[in-house]
Every structure is written in C-alpha cells, then in structure tokens.
Amino acid sequence: MLVDAVRIAIIGAGFAGLGMAVRLKQVGIDDFVILERAQDIGGTWRDNSYPGCAVDVQSHLYSFSFAPNPDWSHVYAPQAEIWDYIQTIARRHAVLPHVRFGHEVVGGEWDESAQHWVLRTTKGEVRAQFVVSSMGPLSNPMAPDIPGLDTFAGHTFHSARWDHDHELAGKRVGVIGTGSSAAQFVPEIQPEVGRLTVFQRTAHWTFPRRNRAITATERRLYRRVPLLQKLARARQYLFRELIAFGFLRNGRSRFLEAIATQRLRRQVPDPELRAKLTPDYALGCKRIVVTDDFHPALASPNVDVVTESISEVVPEGVRTADGVVHELDTLILGTGFEVMPVADPLCGRDGVPLAKRWAQRRAAYLGTTVSGYPNYFMLVGPNTATGHTSVLLYAEAQIEYVIQCVQHLRHTGADSLDVRPEVQDAFVADIRERLKGTVWTGGGCASWYLDPDGGSSVLWPGFTWQFRAALRRFDPADYRLHSVATP
Ligand code: N01
C-alpha cells in the first residue's frame, strides 16, 4: 500500500481547499497534498452544471480577496466562469502538482505516538501532521425519501448531476423542489419542455437579483486601478452585512417582505398561483432565493405548480396525496444536499468517527477545530454560514487561522494542538444561546439549517466581521499542545 508522508493533507480540491493551498504557497509552505476523490478540481462548481447555474452572491465578493478577478463578465458570474476562475488560480499558484486525483478519503486515525494522522484513501495511505478537511458543506446530492422513486419508468436525475445528454424538448418534465437550484434551472428549461410540473413542498421567499453584464470599460478600470474593484467588493460586502441585521433578531423584516410581496404581485397575476407561492414564515428563515425569473416561469401557461404533498413515485410519474397521478417522462430532483460534514470519516483520539460523534449535532470551536481531533481543521465547518453573504468570507478567515496554528507549532516545536474541551463547550453554548434570538430558529419554518433539536450547527449567529474578528488572532491558551518528547 502506497504511503505518502506529508506535513499537511487537504481533503477536497474545491473552492476552499484550493484557497488553503494557494495561501500555503504564498506563505512558503510547500509540503502538502490535496486529496481529491474526483478526477478534476472545482468541487461544487465542477459538479453543478445545470442550465442557468450561477452564483447568487456578487462575484466580486464571491471570490478570494487574495486572488481578485477584474474580468468577471457579469455581476453574478455563471458556473463555467467560476469553475474557470478556480482553475486559473490553481494554475497560477502552481497548486495542481499537489493534487492527488481519485484519492477518496475513506477513513483515518490519529496516531498518538507518532503525532500524525494516518489517512486511508481509495489509492493508499497518507500520513500527515495536519489535516485540513474541506469536503464542502453541500457536496453530496440528496435524493428525497419518497417511496417508489426507483420504480419510475422515465428518466430521473438530480440537479447537481445534470444529464446533459438527456433531451428535454417537448417532454413532460417534473421537478421536485423549489430552492435556489430549481429557481435557476426551471426558467431555463421551461420554454423548451412540453409540460412542466413543479412539486413545491414549501414556498420560498425570493429577492431581486438584477444581474447585468460588467462592461468592458469597467473591467479595464478594475484591471488598471485595483482599488476600484476593492471598493465595489466593499460596497457589496456592506450591503449584505446590512441584510444580516434583519436575520439576527427574531422578528419579521417587514420592509424586505413587502418588496418581495410586491414583486410577486407584479410577476404572478393569477391570485390562486400567487397564494401558493406566498410563504407563511418570516423572510430569511429559509435561505432566500435570489432570482428575477423563477416566478414568471412558474406563471407560464405550460407550467403547473403542485402543492399537494407527494405520496409516492409510480412508473408513470408522481402520485400526490389527493390521489392524482402526474404523468411524466422525466423527473428532476432539485432536492438539495446532505448537509455538511456528516460525511467526515476521521476518528479522533477516542477512536470515534466524526460522523458518529456528530450524528445528533455538530460542534466545533470557531467552526474550525474539534476537541479530541488534534491538528485537524475544517473549512466551512459548523456555524460558519449565514446564507446572506459569500461563504468565502468565512473560509478565508479560517484559512488564515489554520496558517497561524501551523506556524505556531513550528515556532514552539510542538507536534500537535488540540482545542480544550471546555473552550469548545463554552463557545458552542454561546452560539446556541445567540441563535435563539434569530429568524433562523424562530422564524416559523423547517430548513436544512436546523438540527433535530431546533438549534443550528450550520449558521453563524452574527455578522461576518464578528466571525473574522474571532479568528483573527490564534490564542494558544485555547489549546493543549503536545510533542512526542513531552506528551
Ligand atoms: O436545495 P434546497 P438547493 N419532497 O435544500 C425540496 C446552495 N446553492 O439545491 O423547502 C418534496 O435549498 C425542498 O422543500 P422544503 C445554497 O446554499 C447556491 O436548491 O424543504 N420536496 C426544497 O424546495 C442553497 O441553499 C447557489 O420544504 C422536497 C428543495 O427540495 C443550497 O445550495 C445555487 C423533498 C431543496 O432545496 C441548496 O439549494 C444553488 C421531498 N422529499 C444552490 N426533499 C448559488 O448561487 C426536498 N424537497 C451559490
């Protein structure tokens, strides 16, 4: 069995993992590998290629501050361009030679005596002093738990694994789900399909997107005067931080809801359909769908929005609770993803896999380190998202924190650090307390943000600047340091 011994093993060559690699290179750390299960880099921006796939946070903000791109074609760049950006920065910073493709991490243990991780991958063993897990918070598509799904006689696929060889023109197409993904691909396929049946379990609040092309003059200016691009990014950042004000208190954002309701009235003239599309919970409770064309597409003559709950899938199509069978040729699942690190297979000091430890609720210190898992870091781990802004703001803060940890061990000569359990517990208790006063836990909705007990181990209950401030300075007092010589 192949044994690779490195200082740092990064799991996942998606946006965050590659960002980590670029920053390691920039600070002069070269002794690392990126273990990637697929045959190409890009993570979610490689896998999600459905029609209309694009970012719903402005691209100047949805990119790394240390790798600005003055050439974004649109305010909200399409998937191909984001994937290209990821590939460009990976090439420019020479991180591709570090990527081990086809290496899926299937398990791993912390070796206490040697003070390093032993990772088991599908291509052999990798030993590393540090592990940075950047497996993506939403990387594994989730099929809905609907009886009979595999009995469907037509063709089925998930939005995150779009079947581009499957012809939709003129077909009877069903879509399950009305979240951010469906809101992007439904307007694209609606004009071409014969009949579109959209199964909606919960109405989502939407918000204007107003995408536009960035002119050649603007791009030239951004190239010549980088400060202008920084200012554009700062403006977008501040605007999104303002939105967070509404989410951090448990009340209704009447102003934003009024904007969304007015728009729905303009876009959907039919009162019956409008009633179906009007949410009955506070805006922000579920992730807001940023779109201008989803509701107009649903109001098109060849579309039915079905709100009866689905009872089963049958060979002919989908049967709803009222007994109606909606006959279909193709069924597209826009049903979202497994949430976060439940997939993480590494075992800590006590031999318990993280996935098992977190079966009920995920817990980490600063969303980044986990007590009992020495030298283990997560990017976009628990409580590192707010849904209103760029997740890369969180990832970048974590990347810098990881670098500080690695450098601290080098300076002190210690081999490992492990967050003190009492520090982690106090942090998690504080997060839980602060979440109680937010729209996410009190806004009257069910969402993938929530844990079974009604709390959330996904969301950060504050502004992004608070998260960044919390991670700005690594405090050794939060950790126990070990070395082989002095256990
Ligand atoms: O998934 P979702 P998504 N029966 O989980 C429904 C990111 N993203 O792929 O609301 C019937 O939001 C479910 O219904 P309900 C972004 O973070 C980003 O759309 O649970 N329906 C819902 O309508 C986003 O939040 C971009 O009642 C079922 C839908 O399926 C995240 O990815 C673009 C069901 C799932 O919505 C996920 O978005 C796209 C069932 N059994 C996505 N199970 C950007 O632009 C689920 N549903 C960055």
Please provide a written account of the structure:
By secondary structure, the chain is an alpha/beta fold. It has 2 domains: 6-140 and 338-482, FAD/NAD(P)-binding domain (3-Layer(bba) Sandwich), CATH 3.50.50; 149-210 and 245-333, FAD/NAD(P)-binding domain, CATH 3.50.50.60. Helices cover 31% and strands 19% of the residues. The protein has 14 helices and 20 strands. Strands 1, 2, 3, 4, 5, 6, 17 and 18 form an 8-stranded mixed β-sheet that branches. Strands 7-16-8-9-12 form a 5-stranded parallel β-sheet, with no helix packed on it. The protein has a 3-stranded antiparallel β-sheet with strand order 13-14-15, with no helix packed on it. Strand 8, helix 4 and strand 9 form a beta-alpha-beta unit. Helix 1 packs across helix 11. The chain is globular. 3-acetylpyridine adenine dinucleotide (N01) is lined by residues 55-56, 138, 144-146, 176-182, 184, 199, 201-202, 287, 310, 334-337, 448.
How do you describe this structure in short?
By secondary structure, the protein is an alpha/beta fold. 31% of the residues lie in helices and 19% in strands. α11 (391-412) packs parallel to α14 (464-472).
